[in-house]
């Protein structure tokens, strides 16, 4: 039994189309077969590349460790964020802890919107038949 196929449409540049037709005539193949084989080959090569595990290169890590002479700052374990995220003296964190965050000190003026008149009417209570409101 033939393998079930899904029909799709592919746009090819004219040069590729002419070359595939020439090759198909020469070797007795169809355009669809050539395209399927090319795609299967491509997918196989892509799978093999994905399976190759890239070896861990610790040279960058060792360079960082070597730059920390004497083990680095004594509070590195506690305040590593300030060293990693370009706040070398921890000023932002100290201001936040003391409640003096410069961003929080800026007051934003309160703007109240006018009540719009959209022309809507309130409906009065209407009596429904059957005694319900």
Give an overview of the whole structure.
This protein is an all-alpha fold and 133 residues long. It has a domain of 38 residues. The chain has six helices and no strands. The longest helix has 21 residues.
Shape, per Cα inertia axes: flat
Major sheet, described briefly?
none
Low-confidence stretches: none
How much helical structure, as a percent, in the residues?
A: 40-55%
The topology string of helices and strands comes to HHHHHH
Q: Mean pLDDT across all residues, rounded?
A: 75
Q: What's the number of helices?
A: 6
Which structural class matches the secondary elements?
Answer: mainly alpha
* Structural Rg: 36 Å
Strand composition percent? under 5%
Q: Please report the distance between the alpha carbons of the first and last residues.
A: 71 Å
Q: What is the number of E strands?
A: 0
Layout: helices, strands, pairs:
Layout lengths: L13 H14 L3 H21 L7 H9 L12 H5 L6 H7 L4 H4 L28
Condensed summary:
This protein is mainly alpha-helical and 133 residues long. Helices cover 45% and strands 0% of the residues. It has a domain of 38 residues.
Note the main attributes of this structure.
133 residues; mainly alpha; 6 helices; flat
